[in-house]
């Protein structure tokens, strides 16, 4: 996911991991079936990206949860994600339909 404001995005990441929004964010993740969320900042020649890994989640269920959050937020935190984080920090128009879920290309175990 693109990051259009790295400083504000880092502040948001701090808020949801250990700050004032951490409990609300954990509740959002639990409702989506996420056991653990890991965030990475990837700098690329095309711009900054968020790489987000959700452990223990059914991707179809989370896609439905995320779509529901965009259409009808269940909490103030979900409204904050929809109305500020996604459009302002990631530059994504939440009025447009969401893209289809990612399709798995490979799974490699050792």
Give a description of the structure.
- This protein is of the alpha+beta class and 110 residues long.
- The protein has four helices and two strands, in the order H-H-E-E-H-H.
- Helix content is 45%, strand content 16%.
- A two-stranded antiparallel ribbon has the order 1-2.
Secondary structure elements and pairings:
Elements: H1 6-17, H2 22-31, E1 36-44, E2 47-55, H3 59-71, H4 76-90
Antiparallel strand pairs: 1-2
User: Uncertain segments of ≥5 residues (pLDDT<50)?
Assistant: none
Question: In order across it, which strands form the biggest sheet?
Answer: 1-2
> Number of DSSP strands?
2
Strand content: 15-25%
Query: In one word, what is the shape?
Result: globular
Judged by helices, strands and strand pairing, the structural class is alpha+beta
Overall mean pLDDT stands at 91
Quaternary structure annotation: single chain
Rg on CA atoms, Å: 14 Å
Main sheet attributes: strand count, strand direction, barrel closure: 2 strands, antiparallel
Q: Helix and strand succession?
A: HHEEHH
Individual helix count: 4
**Helicity range of the residues?**
40-55%
Instruction: Give the N-to-C terminal Cα separation.
Output: 28 Å
């Amino acid at each position: 996911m693109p990051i259009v404001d790295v400083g504000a995005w880092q502040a948001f990441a701090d808020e949801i991991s250990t700050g004032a929004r951490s409990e609300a964010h954990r509740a959002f993740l639990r409702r989506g079936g996420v056991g653990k969320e890991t965030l990475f900042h990837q700098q690329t020649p095309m711009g900054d990206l968020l790489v987000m890994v959700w452990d223990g989640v059914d991707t179809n269920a989370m896609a439905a949860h995320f779509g529901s959050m965009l259409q009808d937020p269940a909490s103030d935190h979900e409204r904050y994600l929809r109305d500020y984080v996604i459009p302002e920090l990631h530059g994504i128009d939440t009025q447009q339909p969401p893209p289809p879920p990612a399709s798995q290309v490979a799974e490699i175990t050792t």
